[in-house]
Amino acid sequence: MASCKSCYTVIPLDKCAISQSIETVYRCGNCSAALVEIGKLPPLGTSPPRGGRRLGDFFIRNHAELRYRGVLVPNIPDALNQKR
Ligand SMILES: [Zn+2]
């Protein structure tokens, strides 16, 4: 479950619109704000993506507060301001 900061909708991730490029982006079905970006971990020896955190074999950058397998993952406040 992710709670959208833009429209305050709480939406299950499997109901989100998904756009897939290098990273998988889950978008709010209501206002289409980006909620969560999930990508593969970078190779060892390279620096991890900024604003992201490791989650298993992936890194995750969540703009919305997220519940993943019962664990609350707080959003990263400045995630939206970061450019890569
Ligand atoms: Zn929304």
Report the C-alpha radius of gyration, rounded.
Answer: 12 Å
Bound molecules: zinc ion
What is the mean predicted local confidence, pLDDT?
81
Q: Give me the strand/helix succession.
A: EEEEEEEEE
Question: What does this protein structure show overall?
Answer:
- This protein is mostly beta strands and 84 residues long.
- It has one domain.
- It contains no helices and nine strands.
- Strands 3-4-5-7-6 form a five-stranded antiparallel beta sheet, with no helix packed on it.
- The radius of gyration is 12 Å and the shape is globular.
- The protein starts with a strand and ends in an 11-residue tail after the last strand.
- The mean pLDDT is 81.
- The site of zinc ion (ZN) has 8 residues, from loops.
- The site of zinc ion has 8 residues, from loops.
